[in-house]
Amino acid sequence: MSREADPANAPETRWAWVEIDRRAIRSNTRAFKNLLDRSTKLMCVVKADAYGHGAVQCAKAMIASGADAFGVATVDEGIRLRQAGLSKPIVILAEPPIESAPLCAEFDLEPAAWHEDFALALGEAAAASGKVARYHVPVDTGMTRTGLWPADVVAFREAVSWHRGIECAGTFTHFATADVPRDWDFELQQQRFADTIRAIEDAGMDPGLVHCDNTAAMLLAPSTRCDMVRVGIGLYGLHPARSTEPLIDLRPAMSVRARITRVVEPPTGAGVSYGMTYRLSRANIQIATVPIGYADGYSRTLSNRAEVLVGGMRCRQVGNVCMDQLMFAVEVNRAREFGKTEPVHHGQVVTLMGEDGDQAISADELARLRGTINYEVTCDFGLRLEKVFL
Asked: What is the set of domains in the chain, with CATH numbers?
């Protein structure tokens, strides 16, 4: 197996943790970098603590594999990278509050800007310390989320371009349906963005780095890669959609493990967890507990629906998932068929996501059961569980 369920990785204070394979992060980053022309930069998106994987450690691994810039969602995320010693450009992909303009200038962050007062406040803060702050203009080509309408971009640039404390570092948009091949809305967004860039240039201004591709667009529509691409979920070994799976070989970087804290063999009819939504229908069934629950990202919607891996076996999770604990069932006779004299035992490692033997539970499997996307699955696991970097 590629990732062993090693009990030595468990933190001293709690028998539940996330493992992050930095070799996978480096491999995935190189895979995307190798698809690009030398003239196209790679922005690695590490917002939300690198989608739950640990932003600082992941960013350092990505630098070693060719990252040219980093994308974050908040000022605090950018500052943490700077304080960790990262010197690459850091772009804040949404406009932060105007009160944060001095921090953006101090830490050389490149925020998105679409309000004149924010852009000018950024310029004032930078000029006061003898700097020139860089910003990126987001264009709303159809996402209806953030930025300027295409018709307003040139006027915005003209309104702020006089300030000596700022310069436009880039112009970008975000695609809403890039994961759908030959989608009409995607093509319309492309055209609107191309028209906007042309309008900026016709007005005698430099758009800076032009970037519009997310992971899906980079893979499915190579002609839209422009000056820089923004790759997010793919860096962590996950695909944004089924349509991208044949196009690049990726290695999932996150595994979620726990160690068994209790094993019992209850009588027939015994109930398990809140509401007793599961009852033992026969004897010779072990109920094992691991210290991980919905507060750790293992959603309560998975109750009585998901499986875990232990000793290379798939075992059904049973009973309602608790805030800090969950239980699973082990059929004693089936376990013995696997050649196990003792089905499961206290302290044994359980894999909730990842590989164990020739079995694997993916973020996509858990996402399907939850009715969500793999992005949310990894972000949730990164909230409270301690990360062990391999």
From this structure: 22-238 (3.20.20.10), 254-389 (2.40.37.10)
